[in-house]
Design a protein that fits this description.
single chain; alpha/beta; Aspartate Aminotransferase, domain 2; Aspartate Aminotransferase, domain 1; four-stranded antiparallel β-sheet; 13 helices; 14 strands; binds pyridoxal-5'-phosphate
């Protein structure tokens, strides 16, 4: 271990001098789709047929009756909540460690976020905390699969049925993932995908809503139209998404194998480990690869670890800030103790996905960088003169 060179943050040679790969990758299939959209004139039309084809393909791939595309994943969450008739004074239960935009969207509808704790093994929503958080005002469970974590949806659905709640499943980070034998986003009453610029399926912007229920689909359409069509997806966005859908399963399988390799390479490194999933018959998708950092055991503050990893050319970041931290208690209700979410707040690290599509040797660089940082954790504790 001591043979490892000095960390790049302290002036040594970086593991990846070229830095993290940028996303999206060049793709001949996408160029071809754009050229075809150009030739057919679809690029400049309201109804060129591509959005329609994308919605049909999404519905088919997910085995649901309806897919509705729109301008962003965030707007899809709003449409879904409105279609579930969430309004002022209603409560929506979600994990205290979740995408901050979801919290804001609930607020935007005048509803009240009710925060519950996460599971110790993957820092995603823990269904066993739902029941204690319930009140007569509770309407919806908003469930996100985050950072390669999978929420056991069978337990969520059983609980929702018992309490008479609707379920919104946020699959923005895991399109195509399998959760207990089904595609992510198809367990709940309605599911949501994102096609944002950094996501696994990307059109720069965009989102979609998935549902088996015609009434929900119709309500979402009415909200999206409001007399005028509000925030639609364009034909050009649909054009670039269609070839990505065709590649999705193969790419997810490749990414999954790479993450399992990374898990093995890091197995003996103290204080840091990948999120683990206990749900059977599941294969996550990795928009981010989530790690649990135990700062005491690893021996280096999270911010320093992130700075050191980035200096090595690895796209590592701190995770979300937990939703109950730094917010006025008047803006949400605590659905129970949030001890594990507190740990997730301090200890989540996320690796951005593009490197996962490269060769196994390049993913091994992530492990190498973390090992180097661990070996030199003591010198890394204080900023050195070499840092600019
Ligand atoms: C990115 C994301 C969204 C929102 O998607 P946008 O298309 O960026 O608006 C929603 N939920 C989760 C979990 C996300 O990661």
């Amino acid at each position: 271990m001591n043979a490892l060179p000095r960390p790049a943050l302290l002036g040594g040679p970086p593991v990846r001098p070229e830095g993290p790969p940028s996303w999206p990758f060049p793709d001949p299939a996408i160029e071809e789709a754009l050229t075809a959209a150009c030739r057919s004139g679809a690029w400049g039309q309201y109804h060129g047929g591509l959005v329609e084809r994308l919605e049909a393909t999404l519905a088919e791939q997910h085995q649901v009756a309806h897919a509705l595309t729109c301008g962003s994943g965030t707007f899809a969450v709003e449409l879904a909540l409105r279609a579930l008739k969430v309004g002022p004074g209603d409560e929506v239960i979600l994990s205290a460690y979740d995408y901050p935009g979801n919290f804001l969207t609930i607020h935007a509808l005048g509803a009240i976020p009710v925060l519950i704790d996460v599971a110790p093994h993957n820092w995603n929503l823990a269904p066993e905390h739902i029941e204690a958080a319930w009140s007569p005002a509770t309407r919806v469970l908003l469930v996100s699969h985050l950072h390669g974590g999978v929420v056991p949806m069978r337990a969520v659905m059983e609980c929702a049925a018992r309490l008479g709640l609707k379920v919104l499943e946020d699959a923005a980070q895991c399109p195509g993932a399998r959760v207990e034998g089904r595609r992510a986003g198809t367990w709940g009453d309605v599911g949501v995908l994102s096609f944002g610029g950094s996501k696994l399926l990307s059109a720069g912007r965009g989102g979609a809503l998935l549902t088996r229920q015609t009434a929900i689909y119709q309500r979402a359409r009415v909200v999206q139209h409001r007399g005028n069509l509000v925030c639609p997806l364009s034909e050009l966005q649909a054009a670039v998404l269609l070839p990505q859908l065709a590649q999705l399963d193969a790419r997810n399988a490749w990414r999954h194998a790479q993450v399992e390799q990374l898990r093995q390479l890091l197995a003996d490194l103290p204080g840091i480990r990948l999120l683990r999933n206990l749900a059977a018959d599941s294969e996550p998708a990795y928009y981010k690869v989530g790690f649990q950092l135990d700062v005491e055991t690893f021996g280096l503050a999270r911010a320093r670890l992130v700075a050191a990893a980035r200096a090595e050319g690895i796209a590592l970041d701190e995770g979300f800030r937990a939703l109950h931290v730094g917010r006025s208690p008047s803006r949400f209700r605590r659905g129970g103790p949030l001890n594990e979410a507190e740990r997730a707040h301090h200890g989540t690290l996320i690796l951005h996905h593009p490197i996962l599509l490269l060769a196994p040797e390049e993913v091994a660089q992530v492990a190498l960088a973390l090992r180097k940082i661990y070996t030199h954790r003591q010198e890394l504790q204080v900023p050195s003169a070499k840092e600019d």
